[in-house]
Automatic annotation (TrEMBL):
InterPro entries xrefs: DCTN3
One GO term describing the cellular component: dynactin complex
Name of this protein: Putative dynactin subunit 3
GO aspect biological process, one term: cytoskeleton-dependent cytokinesis
Domain of life: Eukaryota
A Pfam family of this chain: Dynactin_p22
Length: 189
């Protein structure tokens, strides 16, 4: 056990720390006679009461459990039988095969990525961007030409329709005149 002298020295140090933390003048009586541990305990209980009434904050209590489940070694520590492990592997067999096939394709295409053509691509960015700009300008010009062509075709169709209507009108007038003339020239017997 600690000697009374050591205990007294520790109590004095705790009182000195409490005065520093509470910011009390040693000549005056502190405003609250409770110790720092009581103050901290009071603050802790108030925080717990505030957190307990909130659903979203109560979820934070489960972060340790969530961290445990998210741990990469959790699967290794889990008590799974060999049969259960086999069932897990068989259940994921298709996905595992897809991952293996994708990895194999990636490995097969790795030399393509390491080719000098791909490595030199950044040097051609300026040329490609200039060509892209030219292509966009030409696309805009082609779109404008297309709009103009559609306008011209619409105008042409309108003119042809107007001429056709006029010709039909003239034909009907001519036909009626010819019929009138034929009726006048045909002698009545």
């Amino acid at each position: 056990m600690a000697t009374p002298k050591v205990l007294k020295m520790l109590e004095e140090r705790v009182e000195k720390l409490e005065r520093r933390v509470i910011d009390c003048d040693p000549t005056k009586e502190p405003p609250n006679k409770s110790s720092i541990t009581e103050v901290l305990l009071n603050v802790h209980t108030k925080i717990q009461a505030a957190v307990a009434s909130r659903e979203k904050l109560s979820v934070l209590k489960k972060t340790d459990e969530l961290d445990r489940y998210l741990d990469a070694e959790f699967q290794d520590r889990a008590d799974l039988t060999e049969g259960a492990k086999l069932q897990l592997i068989l259940a994921e067999e298709d996905r595992i095969r897809q991952v293996i096939a994708a990895y194999q394709r990636m490995e097969d295409l790795k030399p393509v990525l390491d080719s000098t053509h791909i490595k030199d691509a950044p040097t051609h960015i300026g040329k490609v961007s200039a060509l892209a700009t030219i292509q966009l300008e030409q696309q805009e010009q082609a779109d404008e030409q297309t709009r103009n062509l559609h306008h011209l075709l619409a105008t042409y169709n309108d003119q042809v329709n107007t001429i056709s209507k006029q010709l039909l009108l003239w034909d009907s007038i001519l036909t009626s005149k010819l019929e009138q003339q034929n009726t006048k020239t045909v002698p009545s017997d």
